[in-house]
Amino acid sequence: MSFVEQWELRARFARSLSELYGTEVPAYTTLVEVSSEVNRDFQAKHPELAERLGSIERVTAERHGAIRVGDIRELAQAARVFGAAGMHPVGFYDLRDANPPIPVVSTAFRPIDRDELAKNPFRVFTSMLVAEDRRFFNAELEQQLKEFIGSRTLFPEELLQLADKSIEQSGLAQADADRYLELATAAFALSPEPVDRQWYERLEAISSVASDIGGVASTHINHLTPRVLDIDDLYQRMQARGITMIDAIQGPPRWEGPDVLLRQTSFRALAEPRNFKEADGSIGTGDLRVRFGEVEARGIALTEAGRNDYDRMLRVVDERQKESGRPRPEVALEVWREQCPASERELIERDYGFFNFAATGKSVDGENLPTDLLALLDGGWIVAEPIVYEDFLPRSAAGIFASNLSGEGTVDDSQDETARDQSWMARHIGVTMHNPYELYAAERDVSFREAIASLGLAPDAVATPWTVAVAA
After folding, report:
1. What protein family does this chain belong to (predicted)?
2. How far is it, in rounded angstroms, from Cα 203 to Cα 409?
3. CA distance 100 to 402
């Protein structure tokens, strides 16, 4: 019997969820079609740029999903389901600090090895409700939420056992793989079970995200995101097809310099018919607007220094836009041109971006070879290839969420925040949570050492804008 490795499980899982979501949200199919058109046209016009941040095959197949769970027990089970497909929790995101605040903390399950990412980079942004946070939920509502969430089953025991088996043996036999995919896909399908209208609306008054998590008996895909090479073109083409998009593209502005981090947009959440259980026990009809079609364009991964400066520039944009009243995209472009590194070389020089390095094969004169990274780059002995950003931006995620919420919700800022951080999450889900900066740095340092060694130099003898980690 054939054996299905985790990367293949991951690729099949992404395709299966894509097919499911396309039947549930037909506009998603349109989004995928337009994304493919944009990528094909971009590759034809700019062949030298199309694969700068990944092969066109990877970009075309790439998806990121988003789900929401109710508590740490459900998150730990989700970690097992995704772990079966070689997806590990990376990063910690606290959207309670967003504007408007959203009562969730999140992580992203994704491959962490470069070869695994190249085979299939499927990632799932997974948010967990923080029912203990008194800024959103009083003691009575917290208890009711915990009872409701504690009584439901998102992932059947058979699925969890198959997931554990895949984690243990790095894949599954064909029959087990088929069953895992069947159960895992079904776990994220929209439930036909009637929604308790009073309970749902009570949570919705606090947060639409809270009602989507704690107001229904199951979880579901909130969005499934294709990757596109020109998100501005995509935005215009979707509007031309009569699909209402959110007001803006989230993330860095479009400009002539290097693309960094992540740009995202979406079509607005569509009204989906649902059955509701009324107060008198009867079943009525209505609709919910909780799911939307997101699309993303990925750029270069930034170091912590680069990311800190990115956040600083966003604050400058906020202040300047508020003072001037000018359109935000116009202000952002102005700030980027003034303050953002204008080239990949400058990103390297300022230690703002992550890159892989490789020797070019240019002849080496041992006596005259520079012992400085930038001089080796400028002299053509090595080349730098950007490392694509594989993760998420809390502000952008919150912006997408907020653009698709049915209301602003309520927050009591007089109450203290409930402490939640990556250490807390890792301790309670029982698996290692990875720091994205450490993953990018490790990849960069391996390539650097290999490139420098091939030139006959000792890596620790070559000056770099960062400190190279000692090889294990």
Report:
1. Belongs to the 2-oxoadipate dioxygenase/decarboxylase family.
2. 9
3. 7
Domain contains 277: no
Model pLDDT, residue 390: 95
How far apart, in whole angstroms, are the C-alpha atoms of residue 364 and residue 381? Answer: 8
Residues 6+ apart with CB under 8 A from 353: 258, 260, 300, 301, 302, 303, 306, 341, 344, 347, 386, 387
Residue 472, pLDDT > 50, answer: no
Could you tell me if 442 and 423 lie in one domain? no
Lowest-pLDDT range of 58-62, 334-338, 350-354:
58-62
Same domain, 130 and 12: yes
Strand partners, 388: 300
pTM for the model: 0.92
Residues 183, 91 within the same domain: yes
Q: Is residue 29 located within the same domain as residue 69? A: yes
The pair of three-digit structure tokens given for residue 123, joined into one six-digit string: 């990632």
Q: How far apart are CA 160 and CA 181, in angstroms?
A: 12
Q: Is the pLDDT of residue 237 over 60?
A: yes
Residue pair 181/9 in contact by the 8 Å Cβ criterion: yes
44-101 pLDDT, tens digit per residue, is 999 988 888 888 888 888 899 999 999 999 999 999 999 999 999 999 999 988 777 8
Instruction: Report yes or no on 253 lying in a domain.
Output: no
Instruction: Report yes or no on 465 lying in a domain.
Output: yes
d(CA 305, CA 395): 18
- The tokens describing 198, both together, are 């009073």
Domain around 318: 302-346
User: Tens digit of pLDDT for each residue in 143-172?
Assistant: 999 999 999 999 999 999 999 999 999 999
The answer to whether position 271 is within a domain reads: no
